[in-house]
Automatic annotation (TrEMBL), chains A, B:
Keywords: Magnesium, Metal-binding, Molybdenum, Molybdenum cofactor biosynthesis, Transferase
Family classification: Belongs to the MoeA family.
GO biological process, one term: Mo-molybdopterin cofactor biosynthetic process
CDD domains, per the entry: MoeA (cd00887)
Coiled coil: none
Cofactor dependency: Mg(2+)
Catalytic function, reaction form: adenylyl-molybdopterin + molybdate = Mo-molybdopterin + AMP + H(+)
NCBIfam families named among the record's database cross-references: Glp_gephyrin, molyb_syn
Provenance organism: Candidatus Saganbacteria bacterium CG08_land_8_20_14_0_20_45_16
Function: Catalyzes the insertion of molybdate into adenylated molybdopterin with the concomitant release of AMP.
Enzyme class: transferase
Protein name (record): Molybdopterin molybdenumtransferase
Biological or metabolic pathway of the protein: Cofactor biosynthesis; molybdopterin biosynthesis
GO molecular function list: metal ion binding; molybdopterin molybdotransferase activity
Amino acid sequence: MIKAAKALNIVLKHAKSLGTEKIPLSATLGRVLSENIYSDIAMPPFDRSAMDGFAVNSKDKSKAFEIIEDIPAGKVPKKMIKFGQCARIMTGAMLPKGTDKVIKVEDSEPATKSRGSSTFKEPKVLLSGSLKSNVSKAGEDIKKGQLILKKGTKLRPQEAAMLATVGKTKVKVLRQPRVAVISTGSELVEPNHKPKAGQIRNSNASMLLLQLKRQGIDGQYLGIARDNFVATRKLIQKGLKQADILLLSGGVSVGDYDFVREVLKSCGVKVHFNKVAIKPGKPTVFGTKGKKVVFGLPGNPVAVLVIFELFVVPALDKIVGRRTKDNFTPMKLLKDFKRRDTKREQYYPIKITRGNRDFQSQVPDTFAAPLVFHGSAHMQALTKADGIMQIKNGIKNVKKGAMVNVRPI
Amino acid sequence: MIKAAKALNIVLKHAKSLGTEKIPLSATLGRVLSENIYSDIAMPPFDRSAMDGFAVNSKDKSKAFEIIEDIPAGKVPKKMIKFGQCARIMTGAMLPKGTDKVIKVEDSEPATKSRGSSTFKEPKVLLSGSLKSNVSKAGEDIKKGQLILKKGTKLRPQEAAMLATVGKTKVKVLRQPRVAVISTGSELVEPNHKPKAGQIRNSNASMLLLQLKRQGIDGQYLGIARDNFVATRKLIQKGLKQADILLLSGGVSVGDYDFVREVLKSCGVKVHFNKVAIKPGKPTVFGTKGKKVVFGLPGNPVAVLVIFELFVVPALDKIVGRRTKDNFTPMKLLKDFKRRDTKREQYYPIKITRGNRDFQSQVPDTFAAPLVFHGSAHMQALTKADGIMQIKNGIKNVKKGAMVNVRPI
């Protein structure tokens, strides 16, 4: 039995990049760039009006200006603006030659009004307005050829906007693993079946597929392997062939562990550990075959959920190049917590409650309230939980008010 | 011009549930239940072994036990266990009649060893072990007919496990809106084109589609509407026909606002507001047509990102039944922040940095460092940002060390 921290280190050592792939811009959410991105244009590409108004020369002290051109966005101005002249210009449009300033519409007044002319509508305007130029200068945000996104950047909507701006519609990112899910156990029937005596419905596969989805991965479910060598081997072989990561659940506790280990061995998988000092989740198996990674998760659903979050998520993050976040938040324990066995690091379901705002820090106190929990098959408890709190090994009692680390689930 | 809080209230008043739909279990992540779920079975469905070991009667004080049956998971035991007898049992398997306790494999020893018999392997075992029963009693987690998930529950992987356990493979949830995205502006070309003089690439659509994806929605992109009545009207009509929510970007500033408003009016859309005291994002238009909702977002990408997060996300949450979270986190400002115009509530890009651990609270101080920011077209600044900080209207200067509200982006 190895410690949880050591097990995680072993997992991370073997979780390696799967190279790169090119994906469309629309699929980049959460992915990590594997190339530097340079701009093929300046932004703004030209001196650009930041307002709807009238483009003038800032040195021109005239009061009334003749409008000699209309410049909507997207149009290239045709005329040179001289003193006493201006162009009507829209937000985002290119400034005409001879101008360096835009007077807002709100600061203008038709000059014709007072003259009563009806032949021309606004041939001249009276302009006032502040010292602000209301012009975005060419290249003030990005220079042509500038490095705008570095290799290793995690892509969010704003990065997608930048990629679109510079015309990058296919993006090189670290490849996402293909993940296969297999449930093992002769007692299992699929959720659309009514279990007979001695049977239960398979809940781990549905849960694992959603946990994968939360990481941006569409897992492939390969079905239930009955507790026999041939059937299990066949499914594991299939998984190893079509996926980079294989998630097994069940079939790894004391009595049947050797069986699954034998199957994995016969498939060429090297087992790195098979017991972790963690509760729930002790009978967790981790193996590799070349770059392929196999997690033999326990059979009990609470253990599956916990081990996935603590070991599989960091492995996925590392493979796709995301920095693994320490997802724990310190909170105050709402009531005393006691336990007998202190050999393992424990994760226990809690509900988060908020207290009054702490005057000094302005941040309200956050409390972790331990829930009633019957053990690792008691999934119902996790539907009431906001998180799991960590109790390090060696610790027996935690007093009300002490700080505990909580991971949201 | 109305205040940001008032604008949000108007948006939420008009964002209404779109009824329910049945979806497969595999698609439930983040969705909200619109039915109560009752269990059709007890869990565990039978007295179940929590260990691999030997099932015995706890009153039986024998030392050596005859193994009269093997009970793997999924099998219904055939024999009655009497005193002096036991059954070899696996984790998850049904306890045989006459037993109420399981002795772990680790606490057993083959009785044959000492006798040197080679005909039968382990016909008897010597059992020791603790007082623990290692049995999960039928119905200890869930009773048959029990309400296990309430209408209104947000579905996570653990809820999917429960739905699978009770055989719910089709789940009734609040319907997700269909969202259409239209970019407006004659200066725009699609990202796969090289912009000519006066043009820029359309970046808002790519960004909005990823912002929608982050909310679990696959948006439909309808293209660029050139700045003319007929073309714009045609696309808006199409959007109103096929979507529940229409997101327009651009075409809503002073000069062209009337134009888009005229188009919306001619399509039967009622405009509820067209200017919000928010920076960036003043020229934001919000309208409805029956239950259909239209957001006329600004043209500048930073404003689009901000207004989507502040107004569109809460509307989506309300429609699909998720509780809208107040996503702001208080942090200390790292350096003085000054501004001239205090009429609008402002959102300014910042980088989050962490300080030393505060001894009292155990939580490290978190700082917001304002970034260099040229204004609402300066998308590059948002790729360097971790969040946007809120400066309420009326506030001119915020001193270094003061608390500010930050929303991660």
